Amino acid sequence: MERANKRAFWDLKYEQGLPSLTTPDPFFLSAYERFVHPSFANAGMALDLAGGVGRHALWLAKRKWRVTVVDVSDVAIGKLRQAADHSNVKLNLFAVDAAEYDFGPTRFDLVVLFYHLDRSLFPKIVSSLNLGGFVICKMAVSWESETAPRTTDDSALAKDELMSLFSELDVIDHHERPIRGRGVVEFVGKKSR
């Protein structure tokens, strides 16, 4: 999808409201408590890519994390700015396509990526992590039966593909499963080298 069309699509979605994207994902909460918090009890620097209205960013900021949020939607970033002001937390907000964001090397202790697939971002994500930093990621996966013909779907990963995209990270948690006619992968990785 062309950048202007992508922005218009998501601006309309966020204007209409996406109530399911206002509370933190249960996998995110669980992964944070089990893996990230023990290593970063005093918080750190986080990046929420395609963060929308900030369900994860606001949660982190309330726990003293310094959070940068990148999202293509001006509407989402505007709503997030209001929510941050209302919650009295500070966020670094960028209304740009994640592909255009300047990640920079070794800046973040945590990168959060939920349901935004751009394969060109994965090397940038890994490079932007500090040593000991984590990625919490959840994505759609093409999930077909063994007899179904293989389809090409750029909006979903192939089974086990995420492992290869994050091959430079240590796998801390990874599972894939079918859900409502498609699949989902939940992943936590850590940069140790």
Fold and architecture overview:
With about 190 residues, the chain is an alpha/beta fold. The chain has one domain (about 5-190): Rossmann fold, CATH 3.40.50. The chain is built from 6 helices and 7 strands; from the N terminus they run ααβαβαββαβαββ. The chain has helices at about 5-15, 25-40, 55-60, 75-85, 120-130, 160-165; strands at about 45-50, 65-70, 90-95, 110-115, 130-140, 170-180, 180-190. A 7-stranded mixed beta sheet has the order 3-2-1-4-5-7-6. The model is unreliable at about 145-155 (pLDDT under 50).
List the defining traits of the structure above.
193 residues, alpha/beta, seven-stranded mixed β-sheet
Q: pLDDT below 50 for ≥5 consecutive residues: which ranges?
A: 146-153
Which sheet architecture does the biggest sheet show? 7 strands, mixed
What's the helical proportion of residues?
Answer: 25-40%
User: Globular, elongated, flat, extended or rod-shaped: what is the shape?
Assistant: globular
Number of strands: 7
Distance between the first and last residues' Cα = 35 Å
Please state the CA-atom Rg, rounded to the nearest Å: 16 Å
Class inferred from helices and paired strands: alpha/beta
- Strands of the widest sheet, in order across it, are 3-2-1-4-5-7-6
**What is the CATH class designation?**
Alpha Beta
Share of residues in strands: 25-35%
Element pattern in H and E: HHEHEHEEHEHEE
Number of helices: 6
Overall mean confidence score, pLDDT? 89
